[in-house]
Design a protein that fits this description.
The radius of gyration is 21 Å and the shape is elongated. About 20% of the residues lie in helices and about 20% in strands. The structure holds heme C.
């Protein structure tokens, strides 16, 4: 995805199409967006497909949203202009498919939520560094937990908040037969795989699981095999006692 240059006329047209009441191309003013809610929704609904540095998302199905507006921002288009473009994209995505034949679903968020997400994306697109203030703690990073084997089952959930991560980046098991499962409530497609041991099915809402036999003293890497997810950090380490 190359950098995109947005001609001012096109940008204005896009914005006016979104907010017909807008008299000139001054930008989107109302309603007041809640960027903290916008960040949370972005991570949940958009981050599995889009990279946005400040949001900590690393999806690769859709364009990188830091790069997408870099050129326009450099050329002085304000965040309100970018906000209008993102808002329009949420409601009316392009009909283009990416190289894997995937299209962006329309209206993943709507109403005030769509304004919140658009405002957040526009305010941080192409920025380096970290979000500060209330934005810094808006989303808890997934992966902090440790899953332990219980009654022959090791349960390692996918992050329910939609991050490309397991809730537990570490797991501890015992030698012998075991069921490895990944409950997934995120709505994003995931599976759980250990090379050489087994592979669960890809599920969006449900549980992916497989049976395996663990060797004493070994450690294994579990990961999600949906394209781009492991690269974004969806993997962990299973240690066998
Ligand atoms: C299932 C994957 C998927 C999800 C989820 C998704 N997108 Fe997209 N997005 C895409 C694809 C593919 C494209 C490129 C085709 C297009 O423009 O519609 C895209 C394009 C975009 C663009 C245009 C970027 C450019 O270069 O002009 C923006 C902005 C955008 N998405 C924002 C969002 C926001 C905000 C959300 C969450 C509400 C979201 N996307 C959710 C896949 C996704």
């Amino acid at each position: 995805m190359g950098k995109r240059i947005m001609p001012r006329a096109a940008l204005c047209a896009a914005i006016v199409a979104v907010v017909p009441a807008l008299s000139a191309c001054g930008g989107v003013k109302d309603p007041q967006p809640d960027v903290v809610a916008g960040k949370q929704l972005f991570v949940q609904k958009c981050g599995s497909c889009h990279t946005l540095s400040r949001a900590g998302t690393k999806g690769t199905t859709g364009p990188d949203l830091d790069q997408a507006f870099q050129q326009s921002i450099k050329e002085g288009f304000g965040t309100s202009a970018v906000r209008g473009v993102v808002y329009k994209q949420i409601l009316y995505p392009n009909r283009l498919k990416n190289s894997q034949g995937i299209k962006m679903p329309a209206k993943l968020v709507s109403g005030q939520n769509a304004h919140d997400v658009a405002a957040y994306v526009a305010s941080v697109s192409s920025l380096t560094g970290k979000d500060s203030g209330r934005l810094a703690t808006a989303v808890k990073a997934a992966g902090g937990g440790t899953a332990t084997e219980k009654a022959g089952v090791i349960s390692i959930p996918a992050d329910p908040g939609g991050q490309l991560a397991f809730a537990d980046a570490k797991a501890i098991g015992q030698a012998g037969p075991v069921t490895i499962e990944m409950p997934n409530k995120s709505g994003t497609q995931h599976d759980i795989v250990i090379d050489g041991l087994g592979k669960g099915e890809v599920v969006a809402n449900g549980t992916s699981s497989f049976k395996a036999t663990l060797d004493a003293g070994q450690s294994y890497t579990y990961y999600c095999s949906v394209p781009g997810h492991r690269e974004a950090g969806m993997e962990g380490k299973l240690t066998v006692k």
